[in-house]
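Milestone M4 deliverable, item 7.
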Amino acid sequence: MDKIRHIPSLQGLQALVEVADSGSFTQAAQTLCLTQSAVSRKIQQLESHFGVAMFVRNSRSLRLTPEGEQVLASARNILEQLKTLEDRIAPQKRPFRIRMHVSLAVRWLLPKLSDFYRHHPEVSLAIETVATEVVEPASDSDAYVLYLPEPSSAPDCLTLFEEALVPVCAPDLPLSSQQDLAGFALLHRSNDKNDWRYWLSTNDGRSLDEFRHIPFNLDELALDAAARGLGVAMTDMTLAGESIERGVLHIPFGDPLKTRGIYALCLQPSAGSHPACAVVMQWFSQQALTPL
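Output delivered:
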């Protein structure tokens, strides 16, 4: 019979990944809820197991040895496979995880969540928000919502709503026509100012250079600034819909301008193994069919 081969400690592999990612034993210890000495011991156990050093240490830096790089790559692969296996075997123990832009979560999804839980109290959603321009899918998410400049026919992407740009401002702002815009700041939801540029080129013909600007990096901030009377924001009709219905914001002039852009819910390849996937997709499909 072959001699039984001992395997390295999974906790040691986790410690290696955390130290490598953070570049600090102290930070890794905080993440793992361990003491710094405990993390050091786990790394030492790995070094003893493989008979090589994992890190080159000095007073100012910490870097992996070539052997440590090889062990790290295998550690990441092993831990990811175990996580995938756990999700596949017992996915009901965790929520269905959706990653999306923070403004979309606050302005579109949050007002609808009570309806979801009223109809599906047995399902839990975990909403992870990001503030970046592009929502990148994460390995630990089941689905993600992103903006696409054109409609998609991909079978794993569900169109939630089409983008339609509208100017919005506080109801008491003295603004009744496009000519009045010159007296107010244009509020932007991104630094590129593309929404206002596109709307002006289609509706007004004037250049951005003729206006005063206040840029933000979130719809949420631009819309709040508009509600406080700081100026006129350009945003998506759907995202501003609830605030318009409540009378916090209003559209001073113009019709919604469709851009061909869409917001879509896209599934990760592993999402189908989650028992709540079909229920979640059905509910989102219903929201996509529901008018403002």
